[in-house]
Design goal:
By secondary structure, the chain is of the alpha/beta class. It has a single domain, classed as SGNH hydrolase (Rossmann fold, 3-Layer(aba) Sandwich). Helix content is 38%, strand content 11%. The strands form 2 sheets. A 4-stranded parallel sheet has the order 4-5-6-7, covered by helices on one side. The chain has a 3-stranded mixed sheet with strand order 1-2-3, covered by helices on one side. The longest helix is centred in the middle third of the chain and has 21 residues, at 160-180.
Length: 316
Amino acid sequence: MDRVEKERELGKQISPPFTSQFFLERRDILPLSSPSKTEILLCKEAESEVTYFSDRYGFRNDDSIWNKSEWDQLILGDSYALGFCEEEYFSKDIPNLSAMGNGPLSQLATYIEYGAEKNPKKIILTLVSNDLGIDLLQEKENPILVDYLQGKEQFLDRKQKDLDKIYYEQESLVSRERKKESFEFINVFRKWGLKFLHLDPMSPGYRTDYQHQEFLDINLYLNVLSTFKKISPKSEFVILFIPDAFSFRAEQRLSVDQFVLNLKTKVESLGFRFLDAREAISNAYSKYNPLGGYYGHFNKEGHRELRDYLKRNLSL
């Protein structure tokens, strides 16, 4: 936030990235992206930083994508799909409605608000370990997000000025929080999201511990997927399981295998295609660490592996 605050003092329009997790206590309106047509400081690591100019709705796209009546592909996900802290990322050339911390309900809400009218032929929904853990635990406590399962919407595409005002107000609040103690923006993000459920970051529910699958609401996840299908029955849906470093721990591998096999069977029974990127990422470990990016995210080599994997399997 230091860079953001300094640039603001100089009159420059720059903001941090936002996510629905910042606003889960709201009951009037629930923002789902970041400030629109603004330079977004995605991350700052050592002497380097990654920024992008957001589109008209606050996503990481060239704004011209919204001039198209239909899209061939669309990707929805969290910080992995957003390309956190990387200039070159696997989803760069695909219309992208991802946001940091998005779980399944936020993905559904974002699709209904912004993506459905573009009738994408192919929709890629990313799935990372924490999506069915802390993310879904938090999301299902927000009635606005749950209402999307019943077809309700907020018509956010008509309220961008109001949303941008909310983002700016939230940014000021976060800045005041940060001044109380010294931590980076991502830690403010974690603190703000976690306080909603008062979870300890080391608890099994914070990240998906595959040996404690009682924390996972699989039925709700399947309900979300079914709702996607009802909205766009002619689209091809793909679940892309993206492994994180946690998935490769020796004590987790058997549980991960069981989890993926079980979920794959259920997802495919709904007519979704299930892609497991673990093999591609695992093979890369013999050459380098593809998960050596910021806070365990993919670095540029890891994103290249994911991009090549998608090209082989989806002809993108």
